[in-house]
Design a protein that fits this description.
Length: 331
Amino acid sequence: MAQKVTIATVARQAGVSRQTVSNVLNSPHVVREETRQRVQEAIDALGYRTNQAARQMRTGRSRLIAVRIEPTRDGINGSVLDRFLHGLSETAGTAGYRVMLYTAADDTREIREYDDLLGAYDLDAFVLTGTKRGDPRTAWLTARDVPFVTFGRPWDDPTVHPWVDVDGADGTAQATRRLLALGHRRIGFVGWPVGSGVGDDRRLGWEHTLRAAGVDPTDLDRQTEDGIGEGERVARDLLDAPQPPTALVCASDSLALGALQAVRAADPAVPVIGFDDTPVAAAVGLTSVCQPLHQAAVRCVELLTGRLGDTPRQTHPQALLKPRLVLRQTA
């Protein structure tokens, strides 16, 4: 029978004390990087697996983080959350946590899910996505002192809880400057209905950039729900106007793909830029704004481990990350 691998076995292999191995497993921030790497190599070589039940009894913690899976909608922009979840799971695993996924059709059902999950699994924390104005989910968790971080800003007050977000206004500003540099002045915007925090933010980047260039954006934008068909419809409306735009910036790749269909039916010279840099955008040659999703996931885990006491608390419990414009054939 193979010998059981214990913390003591790992310690001998790495040439460190058992306490150091325990620190690497439970409080890695207190161990020097060189030592932590040596211990991790010994853990991997020996195939050591921590006893999660014993760890939970010792620390009083489940080492579980829960996050909701959003509906896929048209299957395009759902890939954005998929990439974020992959990065979150990978980063959380390195920090000694596991990610539990759940679904909910709306905020009320999601809050009900919080109550059930906390009772059944004694979760350590939540990661919330899709923040909105007057978000009832964050209010519920805050009232019960349940640790959480959001991927998305609290649009009412950006100081009320830890969050990580991507600067959407900066992304659409980059897109608009690109089109201005190509000589366009009448640059249209296809966005989401007013009141969406993310949508309003992305629209502001376009509007402020045009105004700074001396261009009046009046009548150059349209709002609609997200989707390819919706994007095509409102883009046609813009292009049929007496003074149509000569280029388009869109709040998502779904809207941009719809706009591309409208553009090709009207004038193939009209450039289109999307947002999210989805795999579909890359496949069709759509210029798009890329979000640093892996970096966002890493920062979310850093903020949570600080909140849970595994690492030093972050001095700035909010992080606004800069996107980048990926140039392709459409602009």
